[in-house]
Design a protein that fits this description.
It is a single chain. The chain has 2 helices and 10 strands. It has 185 residues and is mainly β.
Length: 185
């Protein structure tokens, strides 16, 4: 019986070492965060250069998974100087007062067929609202998180006032991301 107790104690002591843990990743070069919408019926699109992502993810340990994105609003660009100036200004992102937006998800669900949903909070212009990012995960030496979400701009005061007319700019803005990842140090 003492040998059994010794074996049981050794097994219990090493059990935490054998459990699956989500891996920690940081964004790697080649990643993108984009947005698209319509202005007076014409499609526009842009990107947020300089965004940063950290991820803890393992499909076998969704409870331990996390996603965090920091978005510097002054870098938002459509490659159109007229749009960019207005977009970064007080009526839209107000980048002078609100330097960055953040997205934090602590709940990740398996949707099946290789798709996941990150249920998180977007903080934009001092307003925090729930936003769900639906994504796929491609494992490997350089994992890829490829996702999409819809942001209701007026919920955050983006394009309010004279720009609140959803006939000019629809309320729903499409956001897409392709984040290449590397292990965190």
């Amino acid at each position: 019986m003492p040998a059994f107790r010794l074996l049981l104690a050794a097994t219990l002591a090493t059990a935490p070492l054998l459990s699956v843990h989500a891996a920690d990743y940081v964004q790697a070069p080649g990643s993108s965060l984009a947005f698209a919408g319509k202005y007076q019926g014409e499609t526009f699109s842009g990107t947020f250069p300089g965004f940063r992502t950290t991820v803890r993810f393992d499909p076998a340990d969704l409870a331990g998974s996390r996603l965090s994105v920091t978005i510097p609003l002054a870098t938002a660009t459509t490659q159109n100087p007229d749009y960019d100036g207005e977009m970064r200004g007080a009526a839209f992102f107000d980048a002078g007062r609100f330097a960055q937006a953040t997205y934090t998800a602590t709940g990740i669900r398996d949707l099946g067929n290789g798709e996941y949903a990150a249920d998180g909070t977007l903080s934009l212009r001092g307003v925090q609202k729930p936003v769900t990012l639906t994504f796929t995960w491609t494992a490997g030496a350089r994992p890829l998180l490829s996702g999409r979400a819809t942001v209701r701009r007026l919920d955050f005061g983006v394009g309010g006032g004279d720009w609140a007319d959803t006939g000019t700019i629809p309320n729903e803005i499409a956001v897409s991301t392709r984040v290449y990842l590397q292990p965190a140090d």
